[in-house]
Amino acid sequence: MNKFKLLWVCGVFGLIAGCAKGSNGLPYEAWRLGLFAPNYMEVWIETADAVDVRDRVFKRAMSGTSAIQTPKNLKGNPRGWPSYPGWGKGKYVYGAAVRRLIYVRWQSLVEPQTYEAYIVIPTAIQQAMVKPEKAFCEFDGKWITDYRKGVTVGLAPGGIAKVWISGPCVSPIEVARVQGEVVKEGPSGGQTNGKYALPLEPETKAYIEKYGVPYGSW
């Protein structure tokens, strides 16, 4: 069996001790969770938790502000999702095996409203996250063996969560589009008397006042 085929077997069925780099059963050190929002559609992440295939829970794997762009002069376009969403703002989740569930609770500041969503990672996607792929990296001009070790979650008004997996040099794979639910207790579990985490940026406020929120585009 050649080296590449062995890596493929380890990746897909992997989680085999001899193929993994560490106790988490992955062929790489850790996977990354990142989040972003469409232009101007600011969010505050109260918590993003992860559950791996070993049923271990990683609380607050990410929280705070997400990646976002708020171009001046209202030149940004918040409608729809990018073809290549990038990795978003996030962290590596060390010690976790392949994830099977992600829970996100966030404040959609432009509405304002608080949502929560449960994102199930299908088995086929779990396998894709540990499957090696030969990829050409344009930034250094080299062929490498790459993995889709990044999970990116896009958060949009109306409680929409869109999910992809990707790697530094491999194209993203769409995982799911989830309709979140309104958190009845409001922001911060009702502990802030309905006050949201942050005021809107001037560019965001100006965009919303002129164009409104483009519901239905995500």
Automatic annotation (TrEMBL):
InterPro entries named among the record's database cross-references: DUF2931
Organism this protein belongs to: Pseudomonas helleri
Top-level taxon of the source organism: Bacteria
Pfam families referenced in this protein's UniProt entry, alphabetically: DUF2931
Protein name (record): DUF2931 family protein
